[in-house]
């Protein structure tokens, strides 16, 4: 009994056990708040994953728009008759800087007829006819 009275009245003993008790309380408090925070983070992560899963399901069953095929016509190349000549009853036309005779291919066209002041070209696929008129002498400067 005398020993217990001495132990509980000894200031060093009380300080040591008091500090140990305070440290223990701090550890327990930190553990509980950390556990609460971990649970809260786990809950937030779970909610986020659930939202992502629901969004993926909604996107999967959402009606998809039909693809629209936009067909733009090819830009037409401009053909210019720069001149024509006749040699030995054969006409030749100078179109866009190259010499063509009747029956020659001009990109997607075939040169059909050539006269002194015009040339007719026919599209191979569509049969569309274009008449190129001679507009007069054009002088190029290089």
Structural class: alpha+beta
What proportion of the residues form beta strands (DSSP E)? 25-35%
- Please list the strands of the largest sheet in the order they lie side by side: 4-5-6-7
The total number of structural domains is 2
Order of helices and strands: HHEEEEEEE
Radius of gyration: 48 Å
Please provide the count of β strands.
7
Question: How does the overall form come out from the CA principal axes?
Answer: rod-shaped
Number of helices: 2
How confident overall, as mean pLDDT?
A: 79
Extract low-pLDDT stretches. Answer: none
User: Percentage of helical residues?
Assistant: 40-55%
N-to-C terminal Cα separation, in Å?
Answer: 123 Å
* Biggest beta sheet attributes: 4 strands, antiparallel
Task: Explain what this protein looks like in three dimensions.
It contains 2 helices and 7 strands, in the order ααβββββββ. It is rod-shaped. The chain has helices spanning 2-9, 11-61; strands spanning 81-87, 90-95, 98-101, 105-106, 109-114, 118-123, 129-133. The protein is an alpha+beta fold. Helix content is 42%, strand content 25%. The relative contact order is 0.08.
């Amino acid at each position: 009994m005398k020993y217990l009275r001495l132990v509980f009245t000894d200031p060093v003993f009380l300080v040591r056990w008091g500090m140990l008790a305070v440290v223990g309380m701090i550890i327990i408090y930190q553990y509980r708040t950390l556990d609460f925070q971990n649970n809260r983070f786990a809950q937030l992560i779970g909610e986020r994953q659930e939202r992502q899963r629901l969004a993926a399901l909604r996107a999967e069953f959402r009606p998809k728009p039909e693809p629209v095929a936009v067909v733009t016509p090819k830009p037409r190349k401009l053909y210019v008759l720069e001149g024509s000549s006749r040699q030995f009853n054969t006409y030749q036309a100078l179109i866009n800087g190259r010499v063509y005779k009747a029956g020659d291919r001009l990109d997607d066209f075939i040169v059909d007829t050539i006269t002194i002041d015009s040339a007719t070209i026919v599209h191979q696929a569509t049969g569309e006819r274009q008449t190129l008129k001679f507009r007069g002498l054009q002088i190029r400067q290089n």
